[in-house]
Design a protein that fits this description.
By secondary structure, this protein is an alpha+beta fold. It contains 11 helices and 14 strands.
Length: 308
């Protein structure tokens, strides 16, 4: 077999997921994974996403991404290309062992667009199961929930779950789902940003990881005037990064603009905050780090009544 033919064979026959499952410490986060995007974690602060049916991968905490060859070198930079080929030869045809829960049969999926599915769900209203979940279990106050209902950023999902919309140019691009026994996203979406806006023209941007954290920070700050609270949904893909660049460009034109990173207080959150700062720096903006107490996020603060 020629070199080019072997490279093509290795790229098509070895799954990035199978590689990670055989590397020490990497474990699939089944609750955060979908069939199209498998999230693997190692320790507290390392995350890798496998997509394109196992042929590609990317690091949501950096700009690293690529195919199975670059994955091996990303995990072990000391290996040269020849050594990488030796590792991959042993993995030809090895199937990933991730659980069937992340393999959703195509014929059971809702084929309607996200905009249509969003439009068919009830708007958030006081006394509903979703309102009760967000108020009682998530600790979000009524004034924040009323504003979320008025701005139509949160709708009522199934069995008391809450649907949080990611928007781009007014269209729903992604829907995060959180509920008493559910933590997932609707299939077919592409993450951009969840957005919750206070009163007045936007002069300040606060970037959180989860929509509930963005709403919680808004509650803690009494929905600070001029602030746009956004959430990336954790890892930042290309569309999320472009959405942040668009907001940074707008803020860079204002004389008193402020930007804050409100990522979680853990190793992954600190790396997200570094990414936020690096992206903002490209537009001449400084990012202030808003960090809750160690190990917590902003929803922990409002849920347990702890002060930041």
């Amino acid at each position: 077999m020629s070199d080019d033919a072997e490279l093509a064979t290795l790229r098509s026959a070895v799954s990035c997921a199978a590689v990670l499952e055989r590397m020490a410490g990497w474990r699939l986060d089944a609750r955060e994974s979908t069939r199209r995007a498998l999230k693997y974690r190692r320790g507290e602060g390392q995350v890798l996403i496998v997509n394109h049916d196992g042929r590609r991968w990317w690091d949501p905490l950096s700009e690293a991404k690529g195919d199975v060859f670059s994955l091996i070198q990303h995990l072990d930079p000391g290996l040269n290309f020849g050594h990488v080929r030796q590792v991959l030869r042993r993995l030809i045809g090895v199937a990933p062992g991730y659980p069937p829960v992340v393999r959703v049969p195509q014929d059971r999926r809702d084929v309607r667009s996200l905009d249509e599915r969003w439009a068919r769900r009830p708007r958030l209203r006081p006394g509903s199961l979703t309102w009760t979940y967000l108020a009682d279990q998530r600790g979000l106050p009524a004034d924040i929930l009323n504003l979320a209902a008025e701005s139509d950023t949160v709708r009522e999902g199934y069995r008391g779950s809450a649907w949080f919309a990611h928007l781009a140019d007014g269209a729903v691009t992604h829907i995060e789902v959180r509920g008493p026994a559910c933590r997932t996203s609707l299939a077919g979406g592409r993450k951009t940003l969840f957005r919750f806006r206070g009163v007045g023209s936007v002069t300040r941007l606060a970037i959180a990881e989860a929509p509930t954290d963005a709403l919680s920070l808004a509650a803690i700050e009494h929905c600070r005037s001029g602030t746009l609270y956004v959430a990336t949904g954790g890892g930042m893909g290309p569309r999320t990064i472009e959405a942040l660049h668009q907001l940074f460009r707008q803020l860079a034109t204002l004389p008193n603009a402020e930007t804050a990173s409100a990522a979680d207080a853990n190793a992954a959150g600190d790396r997200y905050a570094e990414r936020h700062a690096a992206l903002a720096a490209e537009h001449g903006l400084h990012v202030r780090r808003l960090r809750p107490p160690d190990g917590l996020d902003w929803n922990d603060i409002v849920t347990h009544g702890r002060r930041p």
